[in-house]
């Protein structure tokens, strides 16, 4: 416990790779490489979309939002993880923990909303291609961005504010190298029933809504594709969705597994928590730029224009 004046602030101890602390410096090498790939890849996508006027379309605006949230997720977990791996700097205060959770969980919740918006974008593009630009105007995309941000605040702020009412009495050892809400509340020695219910409600109001809506969007997309007479046009229409389907899979599958491990996998080995958390927070930022660069012709063309020697 740290005493500041008359106030007492609880502290927490971050964890690297359990049982392999002597090899942290070696684990930091692939971690840093993945972070560099994620930051370079997503900033490159942002740059080519902003500077290339041919990419000023709704699909690429949403892709820019996705890259922004991926950059935010990477930067949010980077300082404490490198602190643990490089300097064994494990101590973090509750206020610093809450601040990190605001950005880490906030960007994660916004990415979920962006993926839902991208599913709607693909539905409109395939269902009503002639009215696509009329439906998804710039003003509506800006409004969608504001709604995504406000939705994040409404779902996240009660979780973080409720943490201040908890008492922490024990050693407060966390399972990760960053602060993760279910991990933090397990350290409390007071009742966490309200916090758990609020966390479950927030999960239902985000991924619990987004996943079914994305699934419904693709059911309607498939129905629209099957109504197209030409097999070649059907193939092209579905091809425009491949990148988004990949982004949805690499984001939601590790997130759902991590949530299940935290709620029901109490007997799982410690390295399982570490592995799933790293998969959840590192894989989407690393793989999304690669997927969109490989599977989206316009992004690939813009990338070649930026780096002509990569052809």
TrEMBL record:
SUPFAM superfamilies: Family A G protein-coupled receptor-like. GO terms for cellular component: plasma membrane. One of its GO terms (biological process) is cellular response to lipid. The keyword Secreted does not apply. Its main location: membrane. The chain crosses the membrane at residues 23-49, 61-86, 98-120, 141-163, 200-221, 242-265, 271-291. This is Olfactory receptor. It comes from Bison bison bison. The gene is LOC104992658.
């Amino acid at each position: 416990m740290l005493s500041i004046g008359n106030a007492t602030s609880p502290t927490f101890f971050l964890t690297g790779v359990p049982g392999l602390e002597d090899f942290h410096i070696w684990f930091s090498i692939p971690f840093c490489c993945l972070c560099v790939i994620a930051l370079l890849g997503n900033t490159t996508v942002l740059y080519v979309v902003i500077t290339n006027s041919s990419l000023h379309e709704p699909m690429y605006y949403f892709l820019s939002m996705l890259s922004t949230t991926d950059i935010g997720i990477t930067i949010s977990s980077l300082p404490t993880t490198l602190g643990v791996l490089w300097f064994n700097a494990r101590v973090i205060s509750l206020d610093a923990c809450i601040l990190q959770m605001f950005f880490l969980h906030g960007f994660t919740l916004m990415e979920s909303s962006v993926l839902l918006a991208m599913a709607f974008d693909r539905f409109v593009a395939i269902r009503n291609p002639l009215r696509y630009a009329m439906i998804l105007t710039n003003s509506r995309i800006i409004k969608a961005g504001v709604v995504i941000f406000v939705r994040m605040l409404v779902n996240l702020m009660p979780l973080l504010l409720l943490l201040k009412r908890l008492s922490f009495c024990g050693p407060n050892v966390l399972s990760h190298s960053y602060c993760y809400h279910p991990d933090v509340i397990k350290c409390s020695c007071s009742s966490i029933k309200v916090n758990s219910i609020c966390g479950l409600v927030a999960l239902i109001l985000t991924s619990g809504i987004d996943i079914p809506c994305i699934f419904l969007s693709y059911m309607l997309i498939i129905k629209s594709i099957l109504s197209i007479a030409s097999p070649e046009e059907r193939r092209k229409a579905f091809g425009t969705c491949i990148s988004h389907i990949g982004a949805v899979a690499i984001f939601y599958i590790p997130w759902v597994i991590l949530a299940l491990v935290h709620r029901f996998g109490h007997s799982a080995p410690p390295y399982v928590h570490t592995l799933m958390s790293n998969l959840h927070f590192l894989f989407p930022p690393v793989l999304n730029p690669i997927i969109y660069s490989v599977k989206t012709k316009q992004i690939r063309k813009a990338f070649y224009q930026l780096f002509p020697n990569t052809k």
